[in-house]
Amino acid sequence: MANAFTVDILTPDKVVGKNIPAESLLIPTVRGQINVLADHTHIVSKLETGTLSVFGGADDPDRHFSVTIGVCKLLKDKVIVLANTSEEVHEIDVERAKRALGNAEDKLKSAETLSEDELVKYQRKVGRARLRIQMAQEHKK
Amino acid sequence: MANIKDLKKQIKSTKGTLKITSAMKLVSAAKLSKAQQAITGARPYADELEETIKTVGALVQNYEHSYLKTNDENKQTILLVISANKGLCGGYNSVLAKEVRRFLVETELDVKVSFIGKKVKEIIGTEVNMGEFYTFEKTDPNFAELQEVGNKLATLFTTGEIGRILIAYNSFNSAISFDSTVKQVLPLSLDENAKAKVTEQFPFDFKYDPNAEEILDTLIPETYVSTLWTCLLNAVAAEHGSRMSSMDNAVSNCKEAIKTQTLKMNKLRQAAITTELIEVVSGAESLKG
Q: What is the pTM of this model?
């Protein structure tokens, strides 16, 4: 039962991946990680910032992507991920993520002066940057 | 009649123009390829988002969102016109201005026109009910800036100050063609036809996580901003495409002009030489005699 469905990952800037063959898929959602196998029931779910892993099975390589908030839609033989930002592990710019993390944390330290929206914004930035750094280290080998 | 010196000057200046137009063409071509990349990257996302929202919106009953509310009583409308900040791009701005003018004549709505990009504003600014003018560096469209504009407009809409938000822009087809379009962005419409089709396509309901309302709550504003964003990207790509093709025309016109001018100059020079020769020859003849 190899590669029973395909995955599309789309962001407002670009198409990150289209028709990626997959046997199994791990998606970070607001309710926790879900694992998708072939013939999954139809779900529309909100994404959480995290790692999305596509397992290609025997024939295709495993691929890992960072995703941030968005939604994903599971259809019979197709999974569509709509995320605000997403990139594959090897595309992650660790230096940039580290810089972003530093900046955002500095901003958060002066939290009194920030409005609520800004607070959320910088918290998300920290989350994103941490995720990227962590992912890049995990998959360095 | 022009003399050789004048013609030489003319040719020189045409050559200068040629240099400028071909440089502009190259710049536009480079920018176009970038803009084209952006739009082809953004389109699938926007389409898919719209699709999703239509599906979910059709399947979920009794859902209300302020962006979906239609209010036909309220004729107050904002028309956001996305045009270029610079000229020299063929019919890009004037065609859009014409389209906006036509729309304003035909519509029954009470329209206030806002602008992004100053060119169309310069063309029709005096004839219409002016709204806000938003500036930002459009050559490099910035998501955050656009979002700010979008949020401002959306607030007007949700508070009921205006009943409708429309957007006029040039939709990018290819490097040489675009369509001037007026499109409604708010309220988002889920028409009945689409609803029927969706129910046919998905006879069962989806499972929603955490729940359908929350998903729609996130999706709807996202769709609104994404619509604006794709419109802007379209407009930018169309602008560069239009400028490139009009500069291409300008380049070939310049070359043509240089050719005819050079020909004319050569003829004149030849005529002068011939006259001189005749003078010399006839002088020599008369001495012989």
A: 0.80
